[in-house]
């Protein structure tokens, strides 16, 4: 891998983060990149992430062993025609889009199935551009790989190895199943969030009391409505069929709930709320076959004072306990504990709980 050449078309938040992480793992590899914004290329050259900055998709990409397509899906598809006459017979093309069917169909139409394996790193930020890219952005994030009809075992193994090199967690899925799943667990929730915010906005009184009093559940369920409107408009267009299917199912369920409320159907409501609670509560501890691995997390009561978080982090670090993630829970309407800590394994979570309790911290397990 160190002797290979890796190309990037698009060097923004995701492309830049992948490039930075791979540079650390493969310092001797040659990285070339094309990006619409020249400033990103200048910055990437200056910090040593890439070796060559290209002002177009040209002959230099014919040297690439792997090319990451990191622009919006529609742009990636347009780039395929330019890449087809350039790439080597054994070059791997991969993308980072959150919708997979569109590009897989384009790949088949153009005749590049023997080169392509789809990718979707499930990480991001409200910030954009190369200046926001981080070496650790994808660390411990699920990275979905979607092989196509022409994907070989060697190609898949290469991509799995690269995903592990950036410390992400590879998961292999059929691309159609990927889009069905993301339509339900990501795309639909965003549509619901945007719609609910607009409903409240349109229903608010002139004094804006709804907005002023909005808290708890409303803020939790609508947080994702702060995402990029342009990005979600594109996703709706790219995953149209799957989103419409799951949206229709959701409308049916909402109508059923409306009828149950109107009819005072207590059992229907209790059954719906109960089954949903059981399923939701089981997500972190689920032992069934799932895309998500078990979550190991605790919540700690914490006094708001300088150095409080650092003290806990020091206690854990000096006892050899690694933390995956740590942060303050700002909305605790339905959750005890101010400080949220995630660990890599159950043993670490149990050891941390025991240790912190010895220091007289109150620790709550995830509910």
Describe, in short, the structure shown.
The protein is an alpha/beta fold and 367 residues long. It is 47% helix and 15% strand.
Write a structural description.
It is a single chain. This protein has 13 helices and 12 strands. The chain has 367 residues and is of the alpha/beta class. Strand 7, helix 5 and strand 8 form a beta-alpha-beta unit. The longest helix is centred in the middle third of the chain and has 29 residues.
What are the defining features of this structure?
13 helices; 3 domains; 367 residues; five-stranded parallel beta sheet; 6-phosphogluconate dehydrogenase C-terminal fold; 12 strands; 47% helix; four-stranded antiparallel beta sheet; Rossmann fold; Alpha-Beta Plaits; alpha/beta
Structural topology:
Layout: E1 5-9, H1 13-25, E2 30-34, H2 38-46, E3 52-54, E4 66-69, H3 73-83, E5 92-95, H4 101-110, E6 117-121, E7 142-147, H5 153-165, E8 169-172, H6 175-203, H7 209-213, H8 216-222, H9 229-238, H10 240-262, H11 266-282, E9 296-300, H12 308-318, E10 323-328, E11 339-343, H13 346-358, E12 363-365
Parallel strand pairs: 1-2, 1-4, 2-3, 4-5, 7-8
Antiparallel strand pairs: 6-7, 9-11, 9-12, 10-11
Helix pairs in contact: 3-4, 6-10
The CATH architecture of the largest domain is 3-Layer(aba) Sandwich
Count of distinct structural domains: 3
User: Cα distance, first to last residue?
Assistant: 44 Å
The outline comes out as: globular
CATH superfamily of the largest domain: NAD(P)-binding Rossmann-like Domain
* Spans where pLDDT lies below 50 across 5 or more residues: 285-294, 331-336
* Helix-strand makeup class: alpha/beta
Helix content: 40-55%
Provide the succession of SSEs.
EHEHEEHEHEEHEHHHHHHEHEEHE
- Beta-strand share of residues: 5-15%
Number of helices: 13
Q: What's the CATH class of the largest domain, please?
A: Alpha Beta
- The mean pLDDT is 87
- Rg on CA atoms, Å: 23 Å
Could you say what the CATH topology of the largest domain is called? Rossmann fold
Largest sheet: 5 strands, parallel
Order of strands in the sheet with most strands: 3-2-1-4-5
Beta strands, count: 12
């Amino acid at each position: 891998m160190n002797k290979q050449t890796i190309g990037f078309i698009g060097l923004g938040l995701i492309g830049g983060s992948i490039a930075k992480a791979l540079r650390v793992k493969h310092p001797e590899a040659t990285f070339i990149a094309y990006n619409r914004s020249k400033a990103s290329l200048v910055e990437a050259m200056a910090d040593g992430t890439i070796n060559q900055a290209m002002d177009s998709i040209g002959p230099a990409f014919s040297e690439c062993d792997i090319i990451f397509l990191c622009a919006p899906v529609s742009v990636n598809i347009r780039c395929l025609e330019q890449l087809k006459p350039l790439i080597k017979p054994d070059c791997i093309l991969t993308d980072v889009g959150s919708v997979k069917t569109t590009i897989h169909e384009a790949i088949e139409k153009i005749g590049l199935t023997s080169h392509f394996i789809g990718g979707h790193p499930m990480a991001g930020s409200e910030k954009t551009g190369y200046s926001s890219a981080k070496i650790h952005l994808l660390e411990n994030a699920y990275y979905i790989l979607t092989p196509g009809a022409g994907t070989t075992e060697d190609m898949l193994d290469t991509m799995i190895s690269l995903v592990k090199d950036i410390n992400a967690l590879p998961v292999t899925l059929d691309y159609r199943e990927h889009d069905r799943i993301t339509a339900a667990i990501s795309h639909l929730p965003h549509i619901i969030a945007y719609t609910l915010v607009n409903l409240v906005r349109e229903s608010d009184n002139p004094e804006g009391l709804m907005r002023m009093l909005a808290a708890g559940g409303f803020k939790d369920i609508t947080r994702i409505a702060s995402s990029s409107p342009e990005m979600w408009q594109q996703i709706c267009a790219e995953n149209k069929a799957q989103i419409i299917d799951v949206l229709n199912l959701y409308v049916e369920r909402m109508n059923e709930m409306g009828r149950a409320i109107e009819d005072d159907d207590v059992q229907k409501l209790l059954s719906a709320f109960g089954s949903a609670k059981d399923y939701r509560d089981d997500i972190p501890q689920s032992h069934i076959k799932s895309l998500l691995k078990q979550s190991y997390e605790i919540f700690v009561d914490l006094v708001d004072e300088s150095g409080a978080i650092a003290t806990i982090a020091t206690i854990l670090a000096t006892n050899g306990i690694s933390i995956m993630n740590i942060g303050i829970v700002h909305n605790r309407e339905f959750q005890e504990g101010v400080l949220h800590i995630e660990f890599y394994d159950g043993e670490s979570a149990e050891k941390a709980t025991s240790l912190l309790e010895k220091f007289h911290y109150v620790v709550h397990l995830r509910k």
